[in-house]
Design goal:
The protein has about 325 residues and is α+β, with helices and mostly antiparallel strands. It contains nine helices and 14 strands. The strands form five sheets. A six-stranded mixed sheet has the order 11-6-1-2-3-12, with helices on both faces. The chain has a two-stranded antiparallel sheet with strand order 4-5. Strands 7-10 form a two-stranded antiparallel ribbon. Helix 4 crosses helix 5, helix 4 packs antiparallel against helix 7 and helix 7 runs antiparallel to helix 8. It is globular.
């Protein structure tokens, strides 16, 4: 090398920051931490229930109430086959203290491809005719008479669709879900007082109230003989809207973990993992894309009983909306 030549030092090249890999790593790490935390919480819950509750009841000479065992169903993959066919989920709320009488019936349409959710409330006194058309019963008695299979078959007949998925809450799983989600404020539109032989004592005062699991159950199940059935659905859907609106203000990963915390307490053929994944995916569904309906019909008196007579044409119109590809 010539002495007059000047040697220019090479500057080290800056390494490119791979943001995609970093974000992916952080997401996996958070998911792992959440899963470990969820497992630890479930173990803690189990130990507390196993060690404290029976001992406390027995020590006071009180009978230990045995809960109705949770039925185990074959899990079906939560999967949408095509754009035009949403995933239908029959969602029921039953009261075991009233011999499994239904307190809420909803057909939920989930469309991951179009990012849409439709919630159709079915009034509890909806009239269901026997096969020979000689007798009628309100739909809220369906689960008591034939369980999930009969109830699902009846709703499938109403809408002329196949419903592959179902979720069934009882009071225990309902209140556990509300406990996980936390208390919320709701405006109670009237003074609701009700007591019956099953021991359901409902006492709610008009005005804004902080709803804990017990008062939420009371509000959800309140019914009056002077109502047609539509009023109860409207109250329930208003409560559901309030809960969903609050969930949309929470971090999606928190929503996912919370779903896992309560899912095993209810009856469903959807696995906990699929439910948790959909809860996380729901971050992609704008809250304005969730639509609520009430099954159309009219009040009718049959043999001194008040029924909600379903309008079959309008029922088909609602189902048509759930498969429509024209909504923006």
């Amino acid at each position: 090398m010539n002495k007059n030549e000047i040697k220019i030092p090479h500057r080290p090249r800056k390494k490119k920051i791979l943001w995609g890999k970093i974000v992916g790593f952080i997401f996996i790490l958070l998911l792992l931490i959440g899963s470990i935390g969820y497992g630890a919480f479930k173990g803690y819950e189990y130990l507390i229930a196993k060690m404290n509750v029976p001992a406390s009841a027995e020590s006071q000479g009180m009978p230990v109430k045995l809960e109705e065992p949770i039925k185990v169903y074959k899990k079906e993959p939560l999967h949408q086959e095509d754009l035009a066919q949403p995933m239908y989920v029959l969602t029921l709320v039953k009261d075991t203290q009233k011999a499994n009488e239904l307190e809420g019936i909803y057909l939920v349409s989930l469309n991951k491809e179009q990012r849409l959710i439709d919630v159709i409330g079915i009034p509890l006194p909806s009239k269901i005719m026997s096969r020979d058309n000689k007798s009628a019963m309100p739909i809220y008695e369906a689960y008591r008479n034939g369980g999930i299979e009969l109830t699902k078959a009846i709703v499938e007949d109403i809408f002329h669709i196949q419903i592959p998925y179902f979720v069934v809450f009882d009071r225990t799983s309902f209140e556990k879900t509300m406990k996980v989600l936390g208390d919320t404020e709701l405006y109670v539109e009237g003074n609701f007082n009700q007591y019956d032989e099953s021991g359901s004592d409902i006492s709610l005062i008009q005005g804004v109230q902080k709803m804990d699991p017990y008062t939420t159950w009371s509000y959800f199940t309140y019914e009056s003989s002077s109502e047609s059935g539509i009023e109860q659905i409207q109250r329930q859907e208003r409560l559901i809207k309030t809960l969903i609106h609050r969930e949309y203000n929470r971090w999606p990963l928190t929503r996912m973990v919370d779903t896992g915390r309560f899912w095993d307490s209810l009856e469903s053929n959807i696995s906990s993992w699929d439910a948790m994944c959909f809860a996380f995916f729901s971050r992609n569904i704008n809250e304005s894309r969730i639509t609520y309906y009430v099954l159309p019909g009219a009040v009718e008196q049959v043999d001194g009983k008040k029924y909600w007579t379903i309008n079959p044409i309008d029922a088909q119109s609602i189902v048509g909306i759930t498969v429509s590809q024209e909504r923006n």
